[in-house]
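User: Predict the structure for this protein chain, please.
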Amino acid sequence: MSVCKRLLENIELTNRRRGLFKKGQSLLVAVSGGPDSTALLALLSILRKKYHLKLHVAHLNHGLLPRQGRRHAQFTKKLAQKFRAPYYGRKISVREFAKKSRRSLEEAGRLMRYHFFEEVAGRAGCQKIATAHTLDDQAETVLMRVLRGSGLKGLGGIPFKRRSGRFEVIRPLLDCRKEELRSFLRESKIRTCADQSNRDLRFFRNRVRWQLLPWLEKSFNPQIKRSLSSLRNISEELQGYVESMSRRSFKKCLLKRTRSALILDEARLRCLHPAILKEVFFQAVSDLCGDARQVDYAHMAAIEEILKSPKTPLETHLPSHLLVRKSNGRLEFLVRN
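Assistant: Here is the predicted structure, written as structure tokens:
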């Protein structure tokens, strides 16, 4: 069986299991010009006739490497023409946005990318945004979160699909290995552009990708990436059950909710299983801030310590300008100015 046929079968199997796209839908394909996103565009183009898909290409120049950025933009535009897909490109300054918003370059780039994708998807009339995350990316993400002390939720890694504004982001290649994609590109004689920033060891992900994972593969487990991906799938199933239980518990414990405060009943919280309790805390943070990604397991454990301590009042500070305080039989989540 050819690499191309094997990859197509993998994508179709993932689509049946995960419900990523349907016949007749319009997909916005995020293309950087690198091997993974180029392979995604090429493979979806092969499936286009079978599924009656309408493909659109979006490319964002982050402005970090001017000469490389121009080359990638030109290459991606020609690639879109080759695969008969409308092209949408833009140049931004991630460094400037990161400085103004006090975020890392990685986080700033991610936020600006998805903002751009949502805008283009709206203009192009697309239902889904397809990105080229692979099984290797999944393994890196899970390992990074283990190293940072993530809880069960973090081990869920990269989801096969998620909401992004009005749109759904899908990852058709999340069960595909990078080496298979590169074999497909060589077999199909499709050129790509190399991204120099992917080798920059100042970035945490690149150190995991080029230093830690190769060492683990060589010294401990040649199938470490597959094992980490399996861990992610198991965690997702467990997380789904825990979340359904915690949503019910959260509603029972909720006393009051305003724009800047969320108050839970201390006595009812004390009755919850520790796993459900931490998920209730995560839900409280997410409900109040809209995003709980900066909060990890250690923060939840600190809140649990406050709750179970006989002392009162007690408080702890969390990221995203959050204060958690126990007082008068209540656990308060407060947004600080």
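The chain has a mean pLDDT of 92.
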